[in-house]
């Protein structure tokens, strides 16, 4: 975007390096969480394979099915977060990182420190019944 400083400026280079480090650390944490969740999911499936579980009639069946579905949902969310981080890294490389995708204003550094993959400023992230929902 036009407001982004050019490469070679010390402040921009420092901000670029800090943002890249934040995104890379978040990505590594998310990959580790995904691997751990995958092991949890495999353990649930393996434990259920050892016993004949009838989810419909077994009093423990519903909790087993819930556990499996819950871990699967957490894995899916982690994969979505990885995709968000990859897109943020692409925006960083293009010099568009930290720009709100809705209004074009700069996303505050504090927001990016907490949510490194954020695509909107705080104002645009607030629910607004007049604004149409973002496409999925």
As residue ranges, the low-confidence spans are 1-7
The structure class reads: mainly alpha
SS summary, helix count: 4
Order of helices and strands: HHHH
Round the Cα radius of gyration to an integer and report it: 21 Å
The biggest beta sheet, please? none
Shape: elongated
C-alpha termini separation:
24 Å
- Helix content estimate: 55-70%
Work out the oligomeric state of the chains in this entry: single chain
Average pLDDT, all residues:
84
The tally of strands reads 0
- Share of β-strand residues: under 5%
Give the topology, please.
Blueprint: H1 10-49, H2 61-94, H3 109-114, H4 122-125
Overview of this structure, please?
Helices cover 62% and strands 0% of the residues. The chain is built from 4 helices and no strands. Helix 1 runs antiparallel to helix 2.
Q: Features of this protein?
A:
136 residues; mainly alpha; 0% strand; disordered N terminus
In short:
The chain has helices at residues 10-49, 61-94, 109-114, 122-125.
């Amino acid at each position: 975007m036009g407001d982004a400083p050019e490469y070679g400026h010390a402040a921009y280079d420092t901000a670029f390096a800090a943002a890249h480090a934040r995104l890379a650390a978040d990505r590594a944490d998310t990959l580790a969480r995904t691997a751990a969740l995958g092991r949890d999911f495999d353990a649930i499936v393996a434990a259920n394979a050892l016993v004949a579980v009838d989810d419909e009639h077994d009093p423990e069946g519903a909790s087993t099915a819930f556990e499996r579905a819950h871990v699967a949902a957490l894995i899916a969310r982690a994969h979505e977060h990885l995709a968000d981080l990859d897109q943020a890294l692409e925006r960083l490389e293009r010099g568009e990182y930290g720009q709100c995708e809705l209004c074009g204003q700069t996303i505050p550094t504090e927001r990016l420190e907490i949510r490194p993959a954020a695509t909107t400023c705080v104002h645009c992230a607030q629910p607004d019944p007049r604004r149409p929902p973002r496409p999925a």
